[in-house]
Amino acid sequence: xxxxxxxxxxxxxxxEMTLVANDEVNVIFGQNAQGKTNILEALWLFTGCKSFRGxxxxxxxxxxxxxxxxxxEYTDKxxxxxxxxxxxxxxxxxxxxxxxxxxxxxxxxxxxxxxxPSHLSLIKDGPDVRRKFLDTAICQLKPKxxxxxxxxxxxxxxxxxxxxxxxxxxxxxxxLDVLDEQLAKYSSVIIKDRIKYLELLSQKSExxxxxxxxxxxxxxxxxxxxxxxxxxxxxxxxxxxxxEKIKEARKDDIINKTTSVGPHRDDLEIKIDDISxxxxxxxxxxxxxxxxxxxxxxxxxxxxxxxxxxxxxxDVMSELDEKRQDYVLNHIKERQVFLTxxxxxxxxxxxxxxxxxxxSGRIKEEK
Length: 367
Hints:
This protein has 2 domains: 2-111 and 308-366, P-loop containing nucleotide triphosphate hydrolases (Rossmann fold, 3-Layer(aba) Sandwich), CATH 3.40.50; 122-279, RecF/RecN/SMC, N-terminal domain (Glutathione S-transferase Yfyf (Class Pi), Chain A, domain 2, Up-down Bundle), CATH 1.20.1050.90. It contains 10 helices and 15 strands. It has helices at 36-45, 121-124, 127-141, 143-165, 172-212, 235-256, 277-280, 283-305, 322-330, 344-347; strands at residues 2-11, 14-20, 25-29, 68-75, 80-87, 92-95, 98-100, 112-115, 219-224, 267-272, 275-276, 310-313, 337-341, 354-359, 362-366. Strands 2-1-4-5-6-7 form a 6-stranded antiparallel β-sheet, covered by helices on one side. The protein has a 6-stranded mixed β-sheet with strand order 8-12-13-3-14-15, sandwiched between helices.
């Protein structure tokens, strides 16, 4: 997967811009609020996913403009393609001149992974962020997982609602039996898929982190289950185990009026040299961990789909020492990279690729 060029018209603070990309590394640098991240955001929208900044479509249209347009020319393993998105009263998407029902139809057409400062929450914040990371990554590769996850969340909501009333209505115990069976059923699929994905991610991310740290530090990942379930991968075994754990927790769940057992309570443990990255990792180590996870995700997409995703790295250089910065600039192999930074001195260490100085939404200088 290679981006040939991207064009933006009245997109955020960018009036008109066409960026012709290098096949390897593309560094977009300049001061804050000049439009660097806007370019990465435009590229990310062609994956069919929503903005990684949580933006609304109306926010993409430049102030005092009626519409905004972004165009992407890229090459996948088969041929050259052109995708376009038009933002106005109604959003329109086109692929090779053919209008699509929505940008969601770009999913599977253009692959990219995004790293932004918000992804530091993978390391710094609570378990819900790491669960969401795993679930989002799996959903991209396995659409049925998204349906199972949705069904599971509905069962948890129904069960929690029932637990609030069951002490006053004994007839609800029959309903609870049904919900518990569904809870175990969906839990077993989710846990199996998470553990299977994490096995792949661990191998990829640990290798990448080793490269970032010059083999001086070791990253390790482990799936943590509230029910201490870590040693089974067969879905039937997991179902039997979860059925028993849900039964054991029922009394306490009724008292506490909440569901205490299931993948909605699980976590991803991230360690550096067997020490918690969240509690004891430096800013640079935490950023390196998050980057390794995202690049590991990219490697898995490549292995499964045959397409090498474009790496979009927003403000990745901050708080990394020079050796780690050098890895990002010059040692991310076999994929196209777009990264933003503020410090122009960082661009000088770029061995191959192109750099673009952005000022006030324009390409001021290109090398």
